[in-house]
Amino acid sequence: MNRGMKSGATTAPETLATFEANPFAPSAFERRKARRANRNKWVMFGFCAVLVIPLVAILVDIFFKAAPVLTLDYLWQNPVSKGKEGGLWAPLVGTFYLVIGSLVFVAPVGILAAIYLNEYAREGWLNRTISITVTSLAGVPSIVHGLFGLGAFVLVMLPAINGLVADARRPETKWEAGLLTASLTIAVMNLPVIITSTREALGAVPMAFREACWNLGATRWQTVRTIVLSNSFSGILTGIILTISRAAGETAPILFTGATFFKFVADSGWAKILPYSPGEPFMAMSMHLNIISNQISQMPEVMKFGSAAVLIGLILFVNSFAIVLRVWLRGRKRW
Amino acid sequence: MTSTTPKKFRILDLLEPPIEWLIRLCGWSSIIGIVAIFLFIFKEAAPMVLKLDWLHFFTSSRWIPNPAPGNPPSFGALALLVGTVTTTSIALLIAVPVGLGAAVYISEFAKGKVKETLKIVIELLAAIPSIVWGFIGLMVLGPIIKDVFTTESGSWWGKVMVTLHLASAETGASQGTNLLTGGIILALMSVPLVVSLSEDTLRAVPDSYREAALALGANSWETVRRVLFPAARNGLLAACMLGMGRAIGETMAVLLATGHNNRIPEALTDPVRTMTATIAAEMGEAVHGDEHYRVLFILGIVLFIVTCGINVASDLIVKGIKKANPA
User: Which positions 313-332 of A are in contact with B (Cβ < 8 Å)?
Assistant: First the structure.
């Protein structure tokens, strides 16, 4: 029933009542549609809530279960007896060097590749092919990257290196799968990430800036160096931060390319800060969590939750930098 | 004229030709990367490609990599394929509606702080590493699933679940890591990707479309359903395909959360095993250069081709939308 009719029915005949009532009042059909629109809006909000609330609950749960071990000492001590006691220093420092190593390889190549795609390449089949390979590379499963790292870096590159540096009479000088091979594998995996994000940052610099620079007689490279890069610096930095978080969390690519479950790390001195050489297996947070969560029997629950919480905390911490940087960047942008 | 130019500029400018070549070379890096990945994986797998009984590989589920006396080696990957397909399907059944719904809400309905918060949370979800998702599946979700699908033996509800293939007799004895747990975890992992890509697509639909729909008297939902979905159809499809690609290629999460049992599942809560998890679990033990080792690389090739196919196809779909609708 129509609301206008209801209110009018007490005072006047029905035909008059419809005139007295608001002529723009929605009909029953329109109100049914509006109700459906409203209901669907809440259903979709529900999807968001389904996504967000249980996850926040799970993360809070993990942190609560890990709370008894979460101290600064836990981060600073080395793991003892297969991680059943002690802290997480050795895997943490391994992850740190892995991230640095992969950045050294991927950041220059990725940023230059993005410069090529955004500033140099003309529309055409080559640009098109490169774009497709970037998306394909981003979609390659992480375990396939691991196989590639094994096939290319461990089985082909390492023997070549050993042919140059290793002393055949002293086996300890031989390089094994380790930081170098794992960093290279992670670098290949992160290449599309950094290309895409840098390209986006470069694309956000208005064309007029470049044109103004060219009009002053600058060459392409001068324009890129002085105008484009300096104006997209924060955007590029955001991409690098995202690369860091991805490098720190990945497990599958380093499974066969150098990560190990146990490596002795000194408890004090410089050897604690610089424990791994590039040709030695290393420990990493993700690998540590993988092994202790299902391969060591009688592992105390709290140690499992502890390392999961530290890894999650690390990733969220790194990512929040990227978010803050982006919010700050948007507030500052003047074009 | 030249005296006004600062000197440091001239040194870098002299380097312009070599730098441009370096830039060009780096621009080709992704092509080099993808070709190298294929070549190096193929090189390891090559001696086995011709020797492998491909029919047996795709139709048998006897996966016996380590031969024992009276138990000859057999490489039948059917159960692994089925494991990958079933977990991915469950993941997509959950991730597509939830992801599209959330994307529509964020792009069309949410405003101001709510929108910003949701976007940030989705982005943080995308950042959580796969090993952590596996851990959540193993330690948090698994026990919940196990409790939900375990009943007292002989109870009518238990019989109903067994007849509907929801649970099997072994569910109660398991760790709770099974097809359903793995599927849910994979869904949670691919949802952020689906949401962010679909949201980009919806935002790219010109506002004039929305205004035209509203001017014709459509309300918000009708605009979404009748105007935005058709206009963004290709992009949304591509988003779902990329979500599928991610679910197929995911390794550590399914290694921990699917129960790792090489057989064709009969119930929703049977443990399964995927191709990715098999590579991750067995490569460490495989002897370098033997048949097992090479077959694992063949599994890698299959994964590589499937995911590349999905990516290229989704790229072509998006390209189609750009041609038809240059605005």
Answer: 315-316, 319-320, 323
- Parse chain A into domains and list their residue ranges: 25-69, 72-332
For residue range B98-116, what is the model confidence (pLDDT) as tens digits? 999 999 999 988 888 888 8
End-to-end CA distance of chain B: 45
- Determine the CATH number of domain B46-324: 1.10.3720.10
Strands B74-75 and A85-86: unpaired
Q: A79: which strand partners?
A: A86
Among A247, A266, A242, A263, residue whose Cα is nearest residue A325: A242
Quote the strand ranges of chain A, DSSP E.
79-80, 85-86
Q: A177-220: per-residue pLDDT in tens?
A: 889 999 999 999 999 999 999 999 999 889 999 999 999 988 88
Give the ipTM of the model, two decimals please: 0.89
Q: Provide the angle, in degrees to the nearest 10, between the axes of the packed helices A125-139 and A179-203.
A: 130
Judge whether A117 and A130 are in contact, CB under 8 Å.
yes
Residue A300, pLDDT > 90, answer no
Q: Which of A47, A226, A288 to mutate to test the interface with B (most CBs of B within 10 A)?
A: A47
Q: How far is CA B13 from CA A218, A222, A226, A230, B20, in A?
A: 10, 7, 11, 17, 11
Residue linked to tokens 């030709």: B17
Q: Is B2 on the interface with A (CB under 8 A)?
A: no
Assigned CATH class of A72-332 = mainly alpha
Is B281:B83 a contact under the CB 8 Å cutoff?
no
pLDDT digit string, tens, across residues B144-163: 888 888 776 667 777 777 77
pLDDT in tens, B32-64: 999 999 999 999 888 888 888 888 888 888 888
All residues of chain A having their beta carbon less than 8 Å from the beta carbon of residue B106 are 48
Give residue limits of the domains in chain B: 46-324
